[in-house]
Each structure stands twice: as C-alpha cells, then as structure tokens.
Amino acid sequence: MAGIPVLDRVRLMIEPYEQVIICCWDQYRIGLSNDPLQVNNHLCNKYSLPLDDRRAATSLLRFRISIINNAASILPRKDGSEIHPYLRVYDGFACSYYILCTISKSTISRHVTDIHRQKMFELRARTDEMYIPVYLQAWTRNPVDGQYWIIEKNGNNT
User: Fold this and answer.
1) Are residue 101 and residue 130 in the same domain, yes or no?
2) Where is 115: in which H helix or E strand?
3) Distance between CA atoms of 40 and 48, rounded to whole angstroms?
4) What does the angle CA 74 – CA 23 – CA 143 come to, to the nearest 5 degrees?
5) How far is residue 26's CA from residue 5's CA, in Å, rounded to a whole number?
6) Does residue 102 sit in the same domain as residue 48?
7) CA nearest 72: which of 18, 16, 1, 132?
8) Do 52 and 85 share a structural domain?
9) What is the pTM for the complete model shown?
10) CA dist 1 → 14, 23, 68, 73 (Å)
C-alpha cells in the first residue's frame, strides 16, 4: 500500500481522489464509513486488532475527518474505468441499455422483463440476450441503488 504507516499497519488506506477510507484486507476490500468509531469497531470485530493499533488509526482519522468522505455517499466512478487495485472485483451483469448494473442474475432478469419487455418483444429476444456479463466494482458492499461501475480487467470489461 505504501501510504500512511499508521493506516498501513491496520491495512487501511485513504483513497487520494475520492478521499474515502478503504479496508484493504482481502476478505473485504471495500470503502468504509468516515466515522472513526465505526472504523474502530470494524477493525476490532473483523480482525481483532490490538487496541493500540486501532487507537492510532482512529486518532489519525479524527484529525482528518473534515476531508474524509463516507464511502456510502461517494458517486460511482465512470463505466469503463480502470480497475481500482484495492476494491473488490465482482462478476456482474449490465442491461444492454446500461440502465442497470448488478451482481445478481435474478435482479437483472427482473429488470429486463419489467423495463425492456416491449424491446424484447420487438427483437424477439430472450431475457438472457438483453444483458451482458461485466466486471464491476463499488465503494461499499451491497451499494444503495446498485451503484456499481463497469471496469476493465485485463484489457476487457466483459
């Protein structure tokens, strides 16, 4: 990570552009709340990190709280963005009209049949022909309103 030593020790980073805290532990790789207490609870409950390390990290975050954003309130990046190296990559789906991106096959199928029913009829297309597989990222796990963005992975986004 090679960022701020105090945060490196607890495997957190502050994303330089969006100014959001990212948990870089492999099992999470998501953005966090900007509330130091919630960050402390995350580090304690998920990883059982020592109190001294958690205190050092949350103390630093309190000092910078005015410039750190809450991951849940950050807008998604543009579709086609490069992969963010510290966020989780999801195998997902995008409707052919890029109205919706999701990691749930049932959600994309429901969207296509509800929203694009007329277009399916005109094209004589099956439901699975109305969406494509894509690589997705998001700031948080289960983002509100499906705020994922399509990324390129190995030079490809599907």
Assistant:
1) yes
2) helix 105-115
3) 10
4) 40
5) 19
6) no
7) 18
8) no
9) 0.85
10) 10, 11, 18, 24
Please provide the average confidence, as pLDDT, over all residues in the chain.
88
Q: Which amino acid is at 8?
A: D
Does 56 share its domain with 113? no
Side chain identity, residue 130? M
pLDDT of residue 134: 94
Question: pLDDT band at residue 1, thresholds of 50, 70 and 90?
Answer: low
Residue type for 53, please?
Answer: D
In the structure encoding, which two tokens stand for residue 69, read together? 């954003």
Domain that includes residue 21, residue range: 5-73
**Paired tokens of 143:** 């983002």
Q: How many domains does the chain have?
A: 2
Query: Tokens standing for 144?
Result: 């509100």
Longest distance between any two alpha carbons in the chain, whole Å = 63
Region label for 145, one of left (φ > 0), alpha (ψ between -120 and 50) or beta (otherwise): left
Q: Residues 24, 29, 34, 35: is their CA dihedral positive or negative?
A: negative
